[in-house]
């Protein structure tokens, strides 16, 4: 039986007992990790995933953390420019030994999922919180029905103690001049009278 797994942006065809060099995993030597991204299970009854085979996994034991071969990057500008630059790089890798290929039941195995260094383990998605609508105060009207009154202006009116259309309709010019929190327009008073009557 063989499996095709995906890790570190690459795909590998593996069998039990294979030694594999993969991109660095967040695991120490001796730990057992599980690759859950299995693209295909081969054997007597091959199974191809779309894109992954559900419930399938490949378990492996981490042998050691290693570095790959050194890659030299050399840049030289020619002729009258005596400029040279050499940069070396060694990729960090993890050497693993494939121990078992699970065609099903990978979720209940209890083995730590193989994640790259610096990646967070996939957490269960939390259900999105529904935004609770703010309950309207008892006996108050929706002041945003007045033309030119938005949510911010409605809050200012409520802060000034005006919560109903009847209160706004009963305002005199002296009352309007005495309110400093918001400038009340005469059209609001007329509209409030109409809305208060229903």
Give short descriptive properties of this protein.
198 residues, alpha+beta, DNA polymerase, domain 1, five-stranded mixed beta sheet, four-stranded antiparallel beta sheet, 4 helices, 33% strand, elongated, ribosomal protein, structural constituent of ribosome, bL21-like, bL21-like_sf, rRNA-binding
Task: Give the gist of this structure.
It comes from Ruegeria sp. (strain TM1040) (Silicibacter sp.). With about 200 residues, the chain is α+β, with helices and mostly antiparallel strands.
Task: Report the span from N to C terminus.
Answer: 78 Å
The number of helical segments is 4
Query: What order do the SSEs take from the amino end to the carboxyl end, as H and E?
Result: EEEEEEEEEEEHHHH
Helix content: 10-25%
Largest sheet: 5 strands, mixed
Give the percentage of residues in beta strands.
25-35%
Which geometry do the CA atoms define?
elongated
Domains (count): 2
Strands, total number: 11
Structural class: alpha+beta
Q: Mean pLDDT, nearest integer?
A: 83
How large is the radius of gyration?
34 Å
Low-confidence sequence ranges: 123-136
**Spatial order of strands in the largest sheet:** 3-10-7-4-11
Structure description:
Part of the 50S ribosomal subunit. Contacts protein L20. InterPro entries: bL21-like, bL21-like_sf, DNA_repair_Rad51/TF_NusA_a-hlx, Ribosomal_bL21. This protein binds to 23S rRNA in the presence of protein L20. This is Large ribosomal subunit protein bL21. This protein has two domains: 2-113, no CATH class; 143-197, DNA polymerase, domain 1, CATH 1.10.150. With 198 residues, the protein is of the alpha+beta class. It has four helices and eleven strands, in the order E-E-E-E-E-E-E-E-E-E-E-H-H-H-H. A hairpin with a 4-residue loop joins strand 5 (38-42) and strand 6. It has a five-stranded mixed β-sheet, with no helix packed on it.
């Amino acid at each position: 039986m063989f499996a095709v797994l995906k890790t570190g942006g690459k795909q590998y065809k593996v069998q039990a007992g294979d030694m594999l060099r993969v991109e660095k995993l967040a695991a120490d030597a001796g730990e057992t990790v599980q690759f859950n991204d299995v693209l295909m299970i081969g054997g007597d009854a091959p199974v191809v995933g779309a894109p992954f085979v559900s419930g399938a996994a490949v378990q492996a034991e981490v042998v050691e953390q290693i570095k790959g071969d050194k890659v030299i990057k050399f840049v030289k500008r020619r002729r009258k420019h005596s400029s040279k630059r050499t940069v070396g790089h060694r990729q960090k890798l993890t050497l693993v030994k494939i121990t078992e290929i699970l065609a099903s039941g990978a979720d209940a195995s209890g083995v730590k999922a193989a994640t790259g260094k610096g990646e967070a383990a996939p957490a269960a998605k939390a259900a999105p919180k529904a935004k609770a609508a703010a309950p309207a105060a008892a006996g108050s009207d929706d002041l945003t029905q007045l033309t030119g009154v938005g949510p911010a202006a409605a809050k200012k009116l409520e802060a000034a103690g005006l919560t109903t259309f009847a209160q706004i309709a009963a305002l005199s010019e002296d009352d309007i001049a005495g309110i400093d929190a918001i400038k009340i327009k005469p059209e609001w008073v007329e509209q409030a009278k109409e809305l208060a009557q229903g």
